[in-house]
Amino acid sequence: MTDPFALFDQWFAEARASEPSDSNAMALATVDAAGQPSLRMVLLKGHGPAGFVFYTNRESRKAGELAEVPKAALLFHWKSLRRQIRIEGAVILASDAESDAYFASRSRDSQLGAWASDQSRPLDQRATFEARYEAMRARFEGQPVPRPPHWGGYRVTPERIEFWQDREHRLHERRLFTRDGGGWAEGLLYP
After folding, report:
1. What is the residue extent of each domain of the chain?
2. Residue 49 near residue 64, CB atoms below 8 Å
3. What is the Cα–Cα distance from 155 to 78, expressed in whole angstroms?
4. Which has fewest Cβ within 10 Å: 98, 134, 142, 149?
5. 103-119, pLDDT tens digit by residue?
6. Are 108 and 145 in contact (CB under 8 A)?
7. What is the 8-class DSSP label of residue 143?
8. In 10 A of CB 110, how many CB atoms?
9. Under 8 Å CB-to-CB from 188, ≥6 apart: which residues?
């Protein structure tokens, strides 16, 4: 049987080599407690057998939805390769140590923006955000920017991973991996 994480690594490496920008971009689907779906693009920042990691403001809409219903779906679409990968699973918070390490790797402007933004909340005008950004720049002048307490990572622990390869005449190849106890079951789906 194929290891789905090894196959993901192979496809992801090929995407990094061929995609013109943001090969790590993935659609993140969540639902709120009433079942209302929401979808947006985020960036994959870590992956492996423990799951797929992204980072965000933990007071954002997506974070609120994940707090209500801690499940998500991810979609990678690499048009130049004619491939996509669908992932579904439970979501947990990444550790503070992981979040701190990733935050420290971000550009200073991105770090300051995390402090200045009330992500997903109404904004009266762009100038308000820009003023908040400048205030954070002054506040942290000459010192490292710490990770805000409201910002961190999420890990999607996959229960299903589907690898979709485009084929001529819409005769696509679909390989499905489903969690089976401590391992994975592998099968095919009709196109």
Report:
1. 4-107+148-189
2. no
3. 22
4. 142
5. 999 999 999 999 999 99
6. yes
7. S
8. 11
9. 173, 174, 175, 176
The residue to which tokens 């997506």 are assigned: 62
Shortest CA distance to 89 belongs to which of 51, 39, 49, 46?
51
Q: Could you please report the per-residue DSSP string of 41-85? A: EEE--EEETTEEEEEEETTSHHHHHHHHS-EEEEEEEEGGGTEEE
pLDDT digits (tens, 9 = 90+) for 24-74: 999 999 999 999 999 999 999 999 999 999 999 999 999 999 999 999 999
Share of the chain above pLDDT 90, in %: 93
Nearest one of 117, 119, 118, 107 to 145, comparing CA atoms: 107
Catalytic residue, from 61, 126, 132, 170: name it. Answer: 170
What's at 128, amino acid-wise?
T
DSSP conformation class of 86: E
- The answer to whether 147 is a known catalytic residue is no
